């Protein structure tokens, strides 16, 4: 009996082993069946019905209620198809490359061009049929280029531009000298000279500080590469070669970029040691509000923070009601384009020709994940979100500078100014290649050193003339190049 | 071993020998059906696992993938990193199976011997009862052991293996990773940019670990001795203050100190209000002042824990030794040097070594106090960075995971050699019975 039982167990063993082998075959077939699903070809116009699209949006858009309006409007429009857009409820710093293949990423992403485009090489986002979008003709090539990628030798567009981010000058109208119209408006165009020219801004900074040692004119931490690099670009510097696509050529020292470094150094001399580290960046809101600083630069998205701080200051300092304080703050806080620079790179040169300031910027836009199960529905969502009405609504609610020319014109003011600057090539967009990650720390180190140099004793100074500044910039480029190439 | 095998082959019965091929066969023969079934189940599971994915995982471990993923073309492709992990897991499964396999043969042979000596066979129930009695330690330790294997050993092996691949830079999924042997270690030594930076950082790292451990230890011990004095009133309140510093998360303390020493911080404000010039305590020129501030801030964070530890140990001192020393004319410093320090070193040497390793790998101090600068003469590092910060710059900021892993291995070798040497030479190891 026992032997029979053992024989039965052995037979079962053989059978199970055979089954196990069979299982493997079946699995292989399944894997083959999974292939051929995704790709640009998946945009076939056939909307997937009864699907939910997870959208990763900008935090400010969510906070200020724009995103809710957007998805409510989209869901209403597509409710008969059963397509629903929802907040992906994910962190802005998600990693689509690692999460996407396992189904954890969003279906649609709204992020800056450098973030979106780092996914293009690995094909983690889908190439989009840009020409099909009604915004195609309205968006300048510069903005489209930020989302262009060459993959396997072919060029693709992997994102749809929505808004442009660029540094803006913030200043307080009520801190202008009482006699500005006679003393600080040489061209009599009713715009203070210091807002139009960095040379005049420097003069005013020196004058304001001399009059009151606790007050300053223009203040900004130099260590922020994003803001400081624009001064280099204005004199011929650039980030990477071949329209920011070739990291083997690093151009921060190109042209007469050292003149930009000299301008920064002169501006730093009218500040204080706080410009060396990030002290000014941290306290700019409160210092502009309490009148210690006259002007600073920042991005348009923090306008409301400056405004809130100034409102609070008026309430506390002048005892105004909240409404009156807010009204006064709106009148006095001005956000405008950057002043012009002297072609000589010397802020004390009164006869120099003025040149346009360039700056580093970025374009935020929408992209579609390669791992979405509903690519056509996602494409429809992106078309909806980048339509004239929605971008206009976005600009009104969030104060962004739209990438669409028609909306920028309609909104006017700063938005239009930024758009014009982008169109004119004065906003150098962050390159959409992975090597961009290597520029920040070497750049920051150089600018810290440059700012520190202003406060070093004469015998310890490293940057005494343009040649030494050029050498410093070349060192920085070398460091970036080594970071990119050494271990490849 | 050879003799044991020969004896086994000579004396084992056919069913026991069959256990070599069919696990549980010997147990079936000698009446332990349930144990036999369990062993058979293990074998069948192993076969199922190997066929289903085990063989593929092992092959994948060596190839690290052959098909690049292409999301646009719908090709799932191979993920080299996952393949490596699953390969390691497959080897662990095989090792576990090997353990059961040996137990199966040993068990069957032991049953044969008991049968030959007319001894009753142990049932599964008796074996399980043993696990709750004589072999309770096996039951209790098995789960943590499995946990350690999965959560500690697996990542450590993974990290070690990464050091022998080209993972990082542009070679990240969907690109396929390859084995490159000791190429990364060669780069560390040979590349002109690496060698000098590595040596400079290593020198500072060793000095930092030594100084910070010594300062923290003696400051903590000193504080504990002070608060142990009978003349100190309100000891509980005095002890509470350092604990407050300990209770605040380290990175918040570090950011607070960074602000304090910044140009706009309160220390510089005081200097300015007294007519002085602001000083860049943590600035680009501040190599040694930044290092000194790092040491002091680390002391601020670490002293409370040492103080608590020392307070506990000091209460176990044999005070009669101090009385005797006093009678013999030993002064306070002599008592401290000859009695307190040896006693404390004996009792706390493992903790002290832990502190040394912790300080050697103290990532937060200079990351929060003075991050974001690359100095001249250093490759992707500053003059206050420790090896762990450099490792971070390389592996996280710059994606060179393989080089980061290679540096990790070097750090591991350095710290383990120092720790083992110090420990083996310490009284805690050599004179274990001295204070017992």
From TrEMBL, chain A:
Cellular component, GO annotation: ATP-binding cassette (ABC) transporter complex, substrate-binding subunit-containing
Pfam families referenced in this protein's UniProt entry, alphabetically: SBP_bac_1
Keyword annotations: Signal, Transport
Keyword Ribosomal protein: no
A Gene Ontology BP annotation from the UniProt entry: maltodextrin transmembrane transport
Signal peptide, first to last residue: 1-20
GO molecular function: maltose binding
Organism superkingdom: Bacteria
PANTHER family: MALTOSE-BINDING PERIPLASMIC PROTEIN (PTHR30061), MALTOSE_MALTODEXTRIN-BINDING PERIPLASMIC PROTEIN (PTHR30061:SF50)
Similarity-based family: Belongs to the bacterial solute-binding protein 1 family.
Protein name per its UniProtKB record: Sugar ABC transporter substrate-binding protein
UniProtKB/TrEMBL annotation, chain B:
GO terms for MF: ABC-type maltose transporter activity
Location of the ABC transmembrane type-1 domain: 202-422
Alphabetical UniProt keywords: Cell membrane, Membrane, Sugar transport, Transmembrane, Transmembrane helix, Transport
GO biological process, one term: maltodextrin transmembrane transport
One Pfam family from the record: BPD_transp_1
PROSITE patterns: ABC_TM1
Protein's cellular compartments: Cell membrane
The family this protein is said to belong to: Belongs to the binding-protein-dependent transport system permease family. MalFG subfamily.
Protein's job: Part of the ABC transporter complex MalEFGK involved in maltose/maltodextrin import. Probably responsible for the translocation of the substrate across the membrane.
Name this protein carries in UniProt: Maltose/maltodextrin transport system permease protein
Higher taxonomy: Bacteria, Bacillati, Bacillota, Clostridia, Lachnospirales
